[in-house]
Specification:
The complex is a heterodimer. By secondary structure, chain A is an alpha+beta fold. Among the domains of chain A are: 171 residues, Beta-Lactamase (2-Layer Sandwich), CATH 3.30.450; 159 residues, Histidine kinase-like ATPase, C-terminal domain (Heat Shock Protein 90). Chain A contains 9 helices and 13 strands. Chain A has a 6-stranded antiparallel β-sheet, with helices on one face. A 5-stranded mixed β-sheet of chain A has the order 8-10-11-13-12, covered by helices on one side. In chain A, a hairpin with a 4-residue loop joins β1 and β2. The longest helix of chain A is centred in the first third of the chain and has 66 residues. Chain B is elongated, with a radius of gyration of 33 Å. The relative contact order of chain B is 0.16. Classes of the chains: A alpha+beta, B alpha/beta. At the A-B interface, α1, β4, β5 and α3 of A face α1, β1 and α2 of B.
Chain lengths: 492, 313
């Protein structure tokens, strides 16, 4: 139960946790990428705007130079230097004429403008208006804006302006860690809520299972579950209804079982009737002979005395037979006690004795000593023995042998074996013999319920029935029943 | 049996711990890889990728130079006139290039010296150049009413107490070039007509460009100024008051030398004459043109400028 509970909890948390973590990672990743794109777009737009503004002045300077109004170098150099100093995030500026020749450049590093570097052919004039973001060995991350100085259709030159892109990385990095923190925090919160919810849910289920465990299908235990308005409450209510239906079914089943047992018992009695009649008939014939002799010699006192004793003996015999029969046939309420199965077996065999002799069947009892006591209703156990003996009786046509053996299987179990050398059961039929209403006997001689009833009785008392049969050689049934520790033998 | 159960439980627990560790490891690995990916921002973004940048100077066509009188600063001239030349380049077999002049007379000289094939001149300069060098007008621009006339205006700041030409005494006057019609209209035509003498004013200064005149009056450095009406109309904020309008005079002509290259000038005329009120694409074509030319052109004749000649006398 505990393992199931923890397993369920962990599985749900693991599954949902993985899904949530995956979802949060995906959402955070998409957010970060979008955010990154926005940051880059914003910075690119910024670089473009600055460069376009820069271009206007440079174009004017170039125009003034062409018109001879101003000296290009002076105004351009001054403007570029001011531009770099004022913006503060420019790493370099390169200006080209309309033929792509570099006419002015400035590198800005650590607060110093450097225009003496031998840049040679490393910085060709741009061909397109574009923004390039890349990592440079000298300046680190750079946003390079390439601008063509176009005035309508006339190209006046071009420029490359390298802006410091490190702040972009810092912003992306801080955004990343912010999102990561938010993801971890939210995931933890969701998992905690999930854990508490599942714990609460499983504790309700645990209570339900606890109540289920209390049901033994014997006592009339009433379940007590708290009132709930959620699905668990719905489950509780339906479980209570199920329990009621089970109780009703159990009662009906018990009733039906009793009826079947009784029917089977009566059927057994019917089959015993001819033997019993003979047992009654013999003493009756003796009594009848005695009465005839007394009537013939009414004055023979010695004969009277001798025959009255014989009559009494005959009546006692009849009374014994009738008592046995009534004792077996009477429907009694189930009352379990701890019994010695040897006593029960002997009583049944005695009842059956005459019928066995009819077929000249030799019955041998090999009853174990110091058998463990078994907690079972004595009448039910006798019914089992009777059914098995009847089956052996039916299996033997004549001159057979039945051996009943009992013993301790271990300290925990006792067993009873009934072995006969009758017709046996085919392996095909052996699989079906415990099925209700299955019989190989002729119509009217068997109900098909005998072994089914036996199995039900034995299994309901925690025992089992094993059967082994070789056709035309032997059949034996072994009944194993648990020993009752607190034995308090009941005599019947 | 119990031992097996314990073993099974231990194995399940181990499997569970390994699973959790696996998930955490995967999440950490993903985070690490994604962090590196996010910080790799290398990319190239083409600005206006749909618009191919075309440099008209690279076109393999015969070059035709056009000059413009320096009524505006060079950068303003380029911004207003280069689109006109680009249009001409795109519509003809020639590549038209601007040649700036440092003063009004240089534009005429370039025309006479065959350095340029045509020139955008002012009315006053044209009349003078026609008289001296026989240059002829070919086209003149239309105003917003699609007639080829414009006016010069005398203006002041709205906040100043100048309401008519009689208030100019002791005021500072800003004028465009001495070679411009606007300057000559006020000094040679309106002053005598209104009995005003230049010495009555506190100061009269000629600036090289019309923009300089407007700027100096707007800034309050000068009380009144004279310029072209269409330039003043660009100022919509109510800060300018127009004191006096000139008579309508023909708009500034495009001028060629008497012995002009007919094929080139015919191509130029034909192309620009297609820009008129009936051209549905006019606004789109002239969007970036100097405001003086956005309404199109008509042919110009020398006699159109007789009124200017009258003032020039």
């Amino acid at each position: 139960m505990n393992k199931l509970k923890s397993s369920l909890k962990i599985r749900i948390i693991l599954l949902i946790g993985v899904v949530i973590i995956a979802l949060m990672l995906v959402i955070s990743s998409v957010l970060l990428i979008k955010w990154r794109d926005i940051i880059i777009h914003k910075e690119s737009e910024n670089a473009i705007s600055i460069t376009k503004t820069f271009a206007v002045t440079v174009i004017d300077a170039l125009i003034f130079e062409e018109s001879g109004t101003l000296q290009k170098e002076n105004i351009l150099e001054t403007y570029v230097d001011n531009f770099i100093n004022r913006l503060g995030n420019v790493n370099y500026v390169l200006i080209y004429d309309r033929d792509g020749r570099l006419i002015l450049y400035r590198f800005f590093s650590q607060g110093i403008i450097n225009s003496s570097a031998n840049i040679g052919p490393y910085f060709p004039a741009p061909k397109y208006e574009e923004i390039k973001i890349f990592e440079d060995a000298t300046f680190g991350w750079i946003i390079e804006a390439n601008e063509l100085f176009m005035l309508s259709g006339k190209k006046w030159g071009s420029a490359k302006i390298g802006f410091n892109a490190e702040p972009i990385l810092e912003e992306i990095s801080s955004t990343f860690f912010m999102l990561l923190g938010a993801t971890i925090f939210l995931t933890s919160i969701v998992l905690l809520i999930l854990f508490l919810s599942i714990k609460r849910m499983t504790s309700s289920l645990e209570l339900l299972v606890h109540e289920i465990d209390k049901i033994d299908f014997v006592s009339d235990f009433k379940i007590s579950l708290p009132e709930k308005n959620d699905e668990i409450g719905f489950l509780y209510n339906h479980f209570a209804l199920l329990k009621n239906r089970l109780d009703i079914s159990r009662n009906e089943l018990e009733k039906a079982q009793k009826q079947i047992n009784q029917a089977e018992k009566l059927a057994s009695i019917g089959r015993l009737a001819s033997g019993v009649a003979h047992q009654v008939n013999n003493p009756l014939n003796g009594i009848k002979s005695c009465l005839y002799a007394i009537k013939k010699e009414p004055d023979n006192i010695n004969q009277w005395l001798e025959y009255i004793d014989l009559i009494n003996e005959g009546i006692d015999n009849i009374e014994t037979v009738v008592k046995k029969l009534l004792g077996f046939a009477r429907q009694q309420s189930t009352s379990e006690g701890v019994i010695d199965i040897n006593d029960s077996i002997v009583k049944v065999v005695n009842l059956f004795d005459f019928r066995l002799k009819e077929k000249n069947i030799d019955i041998k009892l090999k009853l174990g000593e110091d058998l463990g006591r078994v907690k079972i209703d004595n009448h039910l156990f006798q019914e089992v023995v009777m059914n098995l003996l009847l089956n052996s009786y039916d299996a033997i046509i004549a001159n057979g042998e039945i051996l009943i053996t009992t013993g301790n299987f271990s300290e925990l179990f006792v067993f009873m074996e009934i072995k006969d050398n009758g017709a046996g059961i085919s392996s095909e039929n052996l699989k079906k013999i415990f099925e209700p209403f299955y019989t190989t006997k002729e119509i009217g001689t068997g109900t098909g319920l005998g072994l089914s009833v036996c199995l039900g009785i034995i299994e309901s008392h925690g025992g089992k029935i094993d059967v082994h049969s070789v056709e035309n050689i032997e059949t034996f049934f072994r009944i194993t029943l648990p020993v009752e520790k607190n034995d308090e033998t009941v005599d019947y | 049996m119990i031992e097996n159960k314990g073993k099974l439980f231990y194995m399940k627990k181990k499997k569970l711990i390994l699973t959790i560790l696996g998930i955490i490891s995967l999440a950490i690995a993903f985070t690490f890889l994604f962090y590196n990916y996010a910080l790799n921002i290398t990319q190239v973004i083409r600005v206006n990728p749909g618009d191919a940048v075309s440099d008209s100077t690279t076109r393999k066509k015969p070059v035709v130079f056009i000059s413009v009188i320096s009524r505006y600063p060079p950068n303003i001239i380029y911004r207003g006139y280069q689109p006109i030349l680009d249009y001409l380049t795109s519509k003809t077999d020639y590549r038209f290039e601007l040649k700036l002049s440092s003063d009004y007379n240089e534009a005429v000289n370039m025309l006479i010296n065959k350095e340029v094939s045509a020139a955008f001149l002012g009315s006053y300069v044209y009349v003078k150049a026609h008289k001296e060098h026989g240059v002829i007008p070919i086209l003149k621009p239309l105003n917003e009413n699609f007639v080829p006339f414009s006016r010069s205006v005398l203006f002041s700041k709205s906040s100043d107490g100048v309401y008519n030409i009689g208030d100019l005494k002791h005021k500072k006057l800003a004028l465009p070039s001495i070679e411009s019609f606007s300057s000559n209209w006020l000094l040679q035509y309106e002053f005598p007509k209104n009995n005003i003498h230049q010495k009555d004013l506190a100061e009269i200064t000629n600036f090289p460009h019309h923009q300089s005149v407007i700027l100096n009056v707007v800034k309050g450095k000068y009380d009144v100024g004279v310029t072209r009406e269409y330039l003043i109309k660009k100022i919509h904020d109510g800060s300018i008051r127009i004191i006096l309008y000139s008579e309508p005079l023909p708009t500034s002509p495009i001028v060629v030398a008497a012995d002009y290259q007919k094929t080139v000038i015919d191509a130029l005329k034909k192309t620009l004459l297609e820009i008129n009120q009936f051209n549905p694409d006019r606004e789109k074509i002239t969007k970036e043109w100097d405001a003086e030319f956005i309404n199109g052109f008509v042919e110009a004749r020398d006699e159109d400028y007789n009124f200017v000649r009258l003032i020039s006398k």
